Every structure is written in C-alpha cells, then in structure tokens.
Amino acid sequence: MQAGGKIENGEHALSALRRELTEEIGLSLADEEFRHLGRFSAAAANERDFVVEAEVYHIRVRHTPKTQSEIEEAVWVSHAEATAMPLAPLTREHVLPLSQTF
Description:
With 102 residues, the protein is an alpha+beta fold. It has one domain. The chain is 28% helix and 17% strand. The chain has a two-stranded antiparallel sheet.
C-alpha cells in the first residue's frame, strides 16, 4: 500500500498527499518535487462493491521511511519485489505498470 489517504473537503490532491506523507512516513517535500501521473480507479481491496479513486504522483527521493502513529511498517521496494507482494487492485493494475516507465 502506498502512503496516502483521503482528501479532505476543499483540499487539493497534492496538499492531501503532502500532508499524508508527512503524517505517515515523516517525508516533507515541496510541490515542485511531485509529478502528477493521472487519476485512476479500481475495485477496493477490502470493501466489496466499492471503487477507490486515486490521484497518482511520482517523486524521486532518498528517504528512510519513519513510521508515524497511523502505520505499523514502511519500506521502499523495487518493482520486482512489489510484483511478488499481495497488492490492491489499483496498485497492481495502475501504479505498478506506471513504475516501469521511470
């Protein structure tokens, strides 16, 4: 699962992502460090008959994730490692293929 979360009312997707990255893995970045890749949707992994939508951004950083109160574990993995993991449909169908372009 990627770091991220729900966009609050009136909040821009990039602002939500910056907030969530800080809250979840202790990563703070400027807006110009993000590249918007698109908006994607897929079946929710753990909620039958629900669809999740995501604004997906690309960043390139050297950062050791520092887990915060909301998450238990955080690691960076390679594309090959990710393909062997149990992934949510949105990640497997959209994010993982996008990662091959970088």
